Amino acid sequence: MKRRLSISVVFILLVIGFSVQTATAQFSNGKNYVGPHLGLSGIGSTLTLGLDYERAITNPGEAGPGIIGIGGLFDYYSYSEDYFADAGTWTYIDFGISGMYHFVLDNNKWDPFVGLVLGYEIASWKWKNSYYGSYSPTAGGFTLGGSAGIRYFFDDNWAAQARIGFGFYILAVGVDYKF
């Protein structure tokens, strides 16, 4: 897990380092935004690895002063615990559709937003018990999440993002590519 974190941090720093142009484009209608994120789950304080996608679907003034975006996300996280002769591993896979409201600012480098995510979570648990052997139940269900965040555009195509939320992750940072 530490290796994945190191690779993600290096990737984010490389994107920041190679992006020296001035940004002139905020979140805008008809554009797509996709990128990886690294988060902190609300279960076991485990790191999550994920991918975000979003597309702007309105212009300022069509739905209030901001812009509406729709998209999706995917998250994966797993952690293990040992109890004397027993050991357990929990694995979670989350995916969902999102609706975000982006606030338009005069400074085009910043893109603050809030929104909701309707998702589905698959949880599996593998347990080795010294008395009963091994078993691996799996469960799934719908979940509702929400987040508030901000993007900072380094140039017209690359942005860093940070989010706080509930339901999927409690904190996430990542990069987005606009096309």
Description:
The chain is mainly beta and 179 residues long. It has one domain: Porin (Beta Barrel), CATH 2.40.160. It contains 1 helix and 9 strands, in the order αβββββββββ. It has one helix spanning 2-18, and strands spanning 32-40, 47-56, 67-83, 86-102, 110-129, 133-135, 138-153, 158-166, 171-178. It has an 8-stranded antiparallel beta barrel with strand order 1-2-3-4-5-7-8-9. It is elongated, with a radius of gyration of 19 Å. 28% of the residues are buried.
Structure summarized in a few sentences:
The chain has 179 residues and is mainly β. It has 1 helix and 9 strands; from the N terminus they run αβββββββββ.
Count of extended strands: 9
Q: What's the SSE pattern?
A: HEEEEEEEEE
Distance between the termini: 30 Å
**What Rg is obtained from the alpha carbons, in whole angstroms?**
19 Å
Unreliable sequence segments: 12-24
* Domain unit count: 1
Number of helices: 1
Overall form: elongated
Q: What does the largest sheet look like? A: 8 strands, antiparallel, barrel
| CATH fold label | Porin
CATH 2nd-level architecture: Beta Barrel
Mean pLDDT, as a whole number?
Answer: 82
The first-level CATH class name: Mainly Beta
Structural class: mainly beta
Strand adjacency order, main sheet: 1-2-3-4-5-7-8-9
Helix content bin: under 10%
